[in-house]
């Protein structure tokens, strides 16, 4: 499995973000922070051709559980999801929680990460 999971949608950037937010909420995940790199770089006088929106998402109960098992997992939390454009196409994706938490080599954490990844993938596919 790759570190990045990504799917294309026919929705606009804004529609894709809204659909993803709704699906995440239905699965007990919230968005802690949202950043569009295109807008942020424009503030600095730099131009990025396409939108690249990073969403940091979290399920508080699961975050607490993994942090109590290994506080160093906090270095890869919260989960990162992206909605981006490339030309006139929109993509939704994420980094793999299973791969990232797998770096800590703890089977109990890997089980939680696998569950989180399944839910996040479902949120993406349901948003397409």
Q: Report strand order across the widest sheet.
A: 1-5-4-3-2
- Assign the CATH topology: TATA-Binding Protein
Distance between the termini: 21 Å
* Share of residues in helices: 40-55%
Radius of gyration: 15 Å
Which segments are poorly predicted (pLDDT under 50) over 5 or more consecutive residues? Answer: none
Describe what this molecule looks like in 3D.
The protein is of the alpha+beta class and 128 residues long. It has a single domain, classed as TT1751-like domain (TATA-Binding Protein, 2-Layer Sandwich). Helices cover 45% and strands 27% of the residues. The protein has helices spanning 13-26, 37-43, 60-69, 97-102, 107-127; strands at 4-9, 30-36, 52-58, 79-86, 89-95. A 5-stranded antiparallel β-sheet has the order 1-5-4-3-2. Helix 1 crosses helix 5. The radius of gyration is 15 Å and the shape is globular. The relative contact order is 0.24.
Task: Quickly describe the structure.
This protein is an alpha+beta fold and 128 residues long. It has helices at 13-26, 37-43, 60-69, 97-102, 107-127; strands at 4-9, 30-36, 52-58, 79-86, 89-95.
Record the SSE blueprint:
Layout lengths: L3 E6 L3 H14 L3 E7 H7 L8 E7 L1 H10 L9 E8 L2 E7 L1 H6 L4 H21 L1
Antiparallel strand pairs: 1-5, 2-3, 3-4, 4-5
Descriptive key words:
single chain, about 130 residues, TATA-Binding Protein, five-stranded antiparallel β-sheet, 5 strands
């Amino acid at each position: 499995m790759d570190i990045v999971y990504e799917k294309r949608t026919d929705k606009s950037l804004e529609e894709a973000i809204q659909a993803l937010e709704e699906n995440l909420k239905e699965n007990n995940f919230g968005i802690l922070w949202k950043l569009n790199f295109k807008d942020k770089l424009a503030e600095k006088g730099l131009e990025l051709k396409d939108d690249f929106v990073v969403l940091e998402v979290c399920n508080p109960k699961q975050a607490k559980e993994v942090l109590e098992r290994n506080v160093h997992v906090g270095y890869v939390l919260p989960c990162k999801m992206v909605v981006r454009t490339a030309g006139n196409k929109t993509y939704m994706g994420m980094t793999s929680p299973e791969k990232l938490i797998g770096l800590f080599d703890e089977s109990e954490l890997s089980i939680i990460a696998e569950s989180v990844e399944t839910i996040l993938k479902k949120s993406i596919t349901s948003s397409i």
